[in-house]
Amino acid sequence: MSDRSGRTRRRGDDLINAIHTAVLEEVVEVGVGRLTMDGIGKRAATPRSTLYRRWSDPVEVLLDALYHAHPVEEPTPGADDLRGDLIRALKLMVTWTLSPAGRAVAAILTDPLSATKMSEALQERVFAHRGGTFTSTVLRHYAERGAFPAGRLTPVVADIGEALVVKRLLDGMPPSDSDLIDFVDQAILPALGLSAPSSDSDRADAATPRPPA
Amino acid sequence: MSDRSGRTRRRGDDLINAIHTAVLEEVVEVGVGRLTMDGIGKRAATPRSTLYRRWSDPVEVLLDALYHAHPVEEPTPGADDLRGDLIRALKLMVTWTLSPAGRAVAAILTDPLSATKMSEALQERVFAHRGGTFTSTVLRHYAERGAFPAGRLTPVVADIGEALVVKRLLDGMPPSDSDLIDFVDQAILPALGLSAPSSDSDRADAATPRPPA
DNA sequence: AACATAAGCTACAGTCGTGTATCTAATGCT
DNA sequence: AGCATTAGATACACGACTGTAGCTTATGTT
Questions:
Q1: Which of A116, A203, B34, B83 is 20 to 30 Å apart from A196, CA to CA?
Q2: Count of Cβ atoms closer than 10 Å to residue A178 Cβ
Q3: Distance CA B191, CA B185 (A)
Q4: Do A164 and B157 touch (CB under 8 A)?
Q5: Which of A172, A161, A170, A144 shows the shortest CA–CA distance to A92?
Q6: Measured between CB atoms, does A212 come within 8 Å of chain B?
């Protein structure tokens, strides 16, 4: 119902999707500050008038695109495998962050003039569904099951994984899978009072909780 | 040597400093993408011609300003106080990050078109002096003194503090002093195999690291 | 088949930033 | 005091983006 062949003119959702895709591409390429109706229109192969019929300026188009972007998969803690689930959660995050929508969010968050406009609704939709909730979904799950002392699950600890991912992205070097494993083994698990499975320097017996002093 | 009174016309370093200040202010206000020679010129109260005599485009002005910005204080590990020094290092980082230069660096790092241009020289000058070296200076110092197992000081662990700070800044909530204490107690020290001074809250009486098991 | 809707096309005046080119006059040096 | 520099003040043509407006015509509906 959206790609019947002989058509020469897009309408409704068809058109809007094309425009959404275009803004996302555009913002990744030129940044929020250089977004223009012209650029978006050219990329979507639609005249500016069509854009102005719906949105008042480029940032509005972008915000709308973000609002309609598919939310990321949520990490679903499954088996009895905290470490594995954490790694999977971070992997999800990296995947999303590297997607057009993820990059666009990063762009808008760091733009002084548009960061303001993205308040309320979007903040919620964009962040509630993924913002900082990649690892914390997992962590809460295992905290309830007593896999580690519940008191250890502070806001700071819930942020460690995401923070490390974000820092690497900012440094221009997206974390590889083995980086993610290191994040979990060397930062998150120790903060929970657990130790990593086994490694050369850090010879721990198993994934046994080691209570602090 | 730079503000003799009766003068009506700035020259040399005087002028250049004014321009540097102007770009930094401008970029914080409008973002890298909307930087213009016009805007910089107006803010510095200098005609565009003067700008073009020295730089070819707004981003060059910005890069030059960053290059000449005062580098941050380096954290100097002093007494035998790992925890205190870590907190101080993070405090230094936050201070710098909130300064015009810090904000400008953040802006340029996240701009798709200018991130490329800032390679080489600036990368080194800007990052060598602070990039990720706030806590790691401290950490290396204490690792050599055997305050914790040297093998614990991995690149990941050296990043934890900075990562958490960066994440909070991105979230629009610059970390308070007590946040920084939490970062150290709940994330960095555990990753080193150490535990925070007093467990329940943060009674910062004994700033002495306590070895684990 | 006729109609309402909305996309596509084109044109326009207006604004803003760009580079460049003059000209002037303030400043620092000798 | 005289001179070389170089900031400051225009002015200019050019291009990019902006909103808006008017027209044509594809599309889905009835």
A1: B83
A2: 8
A3: 10
A4: no
A5: A161
A6: yes
What are the phi and psi torsion angles at B83 (to 5°)?
-60, -50
Interface contact A33, partner B, CB < 8 A = yes
Q: Name the CATH code of domain B12-68 (choices 1.10.150.130, 3.60.10.10, 1.10.10.60, 3.20.20.70).
A: 1.10.10.60
Tokens found for residue B8: 């009506």
Whether residues A187 and B186 touch (CB distance < 8 A) is answered with: no
Q: pLDDT tens digits for A126-179?
A: 665 544 578 988 999 999 999 999 999 999 999 999 999 999 988 888 999 999
Q: Which residues of chain B form CATH 1.10.10.60?
A: 12-68
Test A31 with B111 for CB contact under 8 angstroms: yes
A vs B, Cβ pairs < 8 A, gives: 125
* Chain A positions in Cβ-Cβ contact with residue B167 (cut-off 8 Å): 132, 159, 162-163, 166-167
pLDDT at A46: 96
Distance (Å, rounded) from C-alpha A137 to C-alpha A25? 30
Tell me the C-alpha distance between A76 and A86, whole Å. Answer: 10
Nucleotides of D under 7 A from a protein CB: 6-11, 16-22, 26-28
**pLDDT value at B213 more than 50:** no
Closest residue in B to A28 (Cα–Cα): B112
Find, among B85, B80, B182, B181, the residue nearest to B138 by Cα: B85
Estimate in Å the CA A169 to C1' D23 gap, whole number.
Answer: 49
* CB pair distance less than 8 Å for B112 and A154: no
Cα separation, A29 vs A66, in Å, equals 16
Q: Which residues are within 8 A (CB) of A171 and not within 5 positions of it... i.e. 6 or more apart?
A: B132
